[in-house]
Design goal:
Largest sheet: 2 strands, antiparallel
Shape: elongated
Strand content: 15-25%
CATH class of the largest domain: Alpha Beta
Structural class: alpha+beta
Number of helices: 6
Helix content: 25-40%
CATH topology of the largest domain: Alpha-Beta Plaits
Oligomer: single chain
Bound molecules: iron/sulfur cluster
Length: 172
């Protein structure tokens, strides 16, 4: 007899994984190649000076922008012996920030925490008559460092895969 409970769990787990793909460290390149090469040795996790890398539920390293940020110091790539992180891959983290509707400015509450922590000043505020200015992210300036996420008091900044975003053009 089929194990429906287990099947339901795998189905739910697969959906959750689909909804929230892991943010891999810089220089990780293609996801399948990264997973094939990474030995889960933990070297990048322990070496990262900002402690933004942690082991995900899948046992592979991922970035937690609610905890810290990436300053692209390259320590992780130099520590990765199997070259799952490799300078042959693009440096850029393959995710981009999106501000959702829980942003305090949507309720006319003044807040600038994200912009104050964005070093390249990629977050600007558009002024509107009689309303609180709302943040907008200039993706040409954004480095995907994640520094804006943790300071946001309502966790309004989420990160979408670059490929998903290019197909859905929903950035504010
Ligand atoms: S580049 Fe530096 S800060 Fe970014 S994940 Fe790697 S070790 Fe951490
Ligand atoms: S992820 Fe982009 S918008 Fe956020 S702090 Fe970094 S550069 Fe600025
Ligand atoms: S820190 Fe969060 S709540 Fe504040 S303006 Fe930025 S996205 Fe909105």
């Amino acid at each position: 007899m089929a194990d429906l409970t287990k099947r339901a769990w795998f189905s739910k787990s697969a959906q959750q994984h689909k909804k929230k793909p892991a943010i891999r460290p810089p220089f990780s390149g293609d996801e399948n190649t990264f997973l094939a090469k990474c030995t889960q040795c933990n070297a990048c996790v322990t070496a990262c000076p900002t402690q933004v890398i942690e082991l995900g539920a899948d046992g592979y390293p991922q970035l937690n922008f609610q905890k810290s940020e990436c300053d692209y110091c390259q320590v992780c790539v130099t520590q990765c012996q199997p070259q799952a992180l490799s300078k042959n891959n693009p440096q850029q983290i393959q995710f981009i920030p999106v501000i959702n509707q829980t942003c305090l400015t949507e309720q006319d509450i003044y807040c600038r925490s994200c912009a104050e922590n964005c070093e390249p000043m990629a977050i600007q505020f558009s002024y509107q008559n009689g309303a609180i200015a709302k943040p907008e992210i200039n993706l040409d300036e954004c480095t995907s460092c994640g520094a804006c996420a943790a300071p946001c008091p309502v966790e309004a900044i989420q990160f979408n895969p670059l490929s998903y975003q290019l197909n859905h053009q929903a950035v504010r």
